[in-house]
C-alpha cells in the first residue's frame, strides 16, 4: 500500500476565489464568526493572518475584500477534487476540514489516494506526482503532499517540510525503514490528535514522535487512552488503517465564475470549451458517457438560464461537443451579463461495449451519421421540434398513436410490438375532429360528402363517464378526396377525423 | 461509356483547348447546377421504385430520381398524394435509413403508416419554426447522408428559386430522395426540381401529369387506381 495525502490548506479561500484572474492583487480574506480564517497572498503581505478579528484586519487594510465562509461550496469543491482524483486511482477518500474556525489552519481538508495499484498505469511515481501537482496547479488549488504506507502516516508526513522536499525529488517510494525514520523524526505536534493531547505530550517533554515510540505502549495507553494507541499502531503500519471509500456520484458539475461579467454569448464559448474538456477527460477516465449537457448561465441576482444540449450517443470529442454547444448558444439572447457559467451532467451512464461496437460495425455507418444529424437538429431547433411516432394500444383512434422521443426510437430497431388493425386507416389524422355541416340528411365538407363504406363502430370507455361511441365511415368529397368521418352516437353530430391522402 | 471514359475524353478535350479562350466556358460547365445533355451518363440511372409499375415505366430513372428533388403539385388533400410516395418511404425505412417529414400539415397517423410497412422507429418528424429554420433543417438533413428520404411542404411563403436549387443540390450531395409538396398554381413557374408531377383526382382515381423530368420525356398522363379497400361499396349505408 502506498498512500498519498493531499492537504488542501486554502480550500475555504479557493472555493470562493478560484475563478478570479491569476494576476489579481486585491487583498481578499475569508471570515467566519468575526474572525479571519484565510487570506490571499496580497492580504498576507499586509499581515492579515488567520485568527485576527475582522475589526483589526480592516484597520490593517481598509481596502480588504471580506468574503463570508461558504462551507457548502467548500464541500462541493472537495467532492469535485475527489472526482478528479478518482481519475488517477480507484481508491480515493476525501476528508473535510474541521468546521471549527479556530482549528481550521490545523486540520484542513484533504484527499487520500492509494497509489500502489496505479503506479504502473501512470508511468511511475515521479510522473504521477508531477501530473497531480500540475493539474492541481492548473485548477489553482494550493496543496501539500505526503506519501506514507498508511493514510495516517501520509497525513502526518504531508505536514513535514523535509518530507515534502524529498517527495519533490524522489522517483521511488521509500523503504519501510525510511518511513519509520521519517515518522520518528516528525515533531509530535503534527500528530493527528486533539490539542489537549498534544499539550499533554509537550508537558511530558515528548517533542518528537521518536520519544513517544520509546515509551512502553502500556504507559502511553494509561495516559492517553485506547484510541491514541490505535492511532499509533495505524501510524506504524502494525494495524490496518481503513478510510471511508469514495464512490464518485454519476454526475458532473463544474462552474466558472467570471471576474467581470460577459455580455456577449460568443465570449461564453471559450470558458465553455474549458469545461467541456474537463468533462471529457473525466468521462474518458471513468468510462462513462453523458446523454446531455446542461449549461447554466448565471445572471447573478437576476436569476439564471439553462441551455441543454442533448446527445443521442456517447460522444467524447470536445470539438464536436463545443460545436453543438455553439449551435445552442447562438440561439440564446443574453438578458443580462453572465456572471458564471456552469456545466452540469446529471446522469452519467456507464459505457457499454455494445455501444462502441455499434459505432464500428454499423452497416454503412449511416447510424453514426443519423446520430450526428439528430444532435445537430436538436441543438439548433430545440428538443421539442423533433419527435417520432409510435403505435399505442387503444380503442380510440386518436389514442392509437403517440409521440415518441426520437432518441429512444433510433436505438430501438426491432419491429412494432403492436399489430396494426386490418381496417384501412387514413394517413393523416386531424389534431382535433372537425365538425361537418349537416343539411337535409346530407353532409357538407367543402362540398357534399358521399359515404362509401361503413360503419365501423368504435365504442370505447363505455364503462367510464366520458363514453366514446362513434360510427366511422369512409366518405368522398366532390373533388375525389377521401375522408375518414364519424358520427358521434350520443350527440348524433358528424365529424371529420382523418384524410386518406 | 462509363464515367471514367467520359472523364478521359473531357480531359483530352480540355488539353486540346488549353491556352485558348475557352476557359470561362469550361469553368461554367463545372458548375453542378448546369445540366449538360452530353453528360447524361453521370446521372444515376436507377431510381427508387415508386411501387407503381406504370409510373416506374414512365420515369427515366425507372423510379423516383435519387439524390434529387421531386415536386408534387397538389391542390386538394385526400386524393392519394401520400399513398403515392408511401411505398418508397417504407422501402427506405426497411433499408434502415431515416425518413424525415418537415412540418406535415396534419398528424401522420401511425397505424396507417405501419399498415403501409413503414418502420416507425426510422421516421422523424421535424417542426422547425419559421422559414429560415425550416430551410436550414431541410438542407442539413438532405446533405447529411443519414437520411433516405425527406418530405417537405410549401408553407405560406413561397420558396425562392435559389432556395429550391440549394435543396436540390443538398439532396444530390446526400443522395437523398426529396419530395416537396406545392400547390398546383406553381406549375407555371419554372423550378430546378429534377421531376415535377401534377396530381389531381378524376373522381375515382389519382391522375398524374408529368410536367418535367430531367433526362426524359414529359407531358405524359397516368391514372392510378385508389386502394379498392377504400372505395369499394360493400355496405349498405343508412
How is the biggest beta sheet of chain A arranged?
Answer: 7 strands, antiparallel
Arrangement of strands in the largest sheet of chain A: 16-22-21-20-19-18-17
Task: Provide the low-confidence segments of chain A as ranges.
Answer: 360-364, 411-416
Please compute the radius of gyration of chain A using only Cα atoms: 34 Å
The percentage of residues in β strands of chain B lies in: 15-25%
Determine the structural class of chain A based on helices, strands and strand pairing. Answer: alpha+beta
Q: Greatest chain-chain interface?
A: A-B, 61 and 61 residues
Shape of chain B: globular
Strand content of chain A: 25-35%
Give the ordered list of helices and strands of chain B. HHHEHEEHEHEHEEEEH
Continuous helix count of chain A:
17
Q: What is the straight-line distance between the termini of chain A?
A: 73 Å
The span between the termini of chain B is: 65 Å
Plain-language structure description:
The complex is a heterodimer of chains A (501) and B (238). Chain A has 501 residues and is α+β, with helices and mostly antiparallel strands. In chain A, 34% of the residues lie in helices and 26% in strands. Chain A has helices spanning 11-17, 41-44, 54-60, 71-86, 125-138, 151-157, 161-169, 176-185, 195-203, 209-214, 217-224, 226-236, 269-286, 318-331, 353-361, 366-381, 406-411, and strands spanning 3-8, 28-32, 35-39, 65-68, 92-95, 109-114, 144-148, 252-262, 288-289, 292-298, 304-310, 338-345, 349-350, 386-391, 401-404, 428-435, 437-439, 442-444, 448-460, 468-476, 482-488, 494-499. In chain A, a hairpin with a 5-residue loop joins strand 10 and strand 11 (304-310). Chain B is built from 8 helices and 9 strands. Chain B has helices at residues 3-16, 23-29, 53-58, 81-94, 110-115, 130-144, 161-174, 228-231, and strands spanning 68-74, 98-102, 107-108, 123-126, 147-153, 177-182, 195-201, 205-213, 221-225. The mean pLDDT of chain B is 82. The interface between A and B is large, with 61 and 61 residues. Strand 16 of chain A pairs antiparallel with strand 3 (107-108) of chain B.
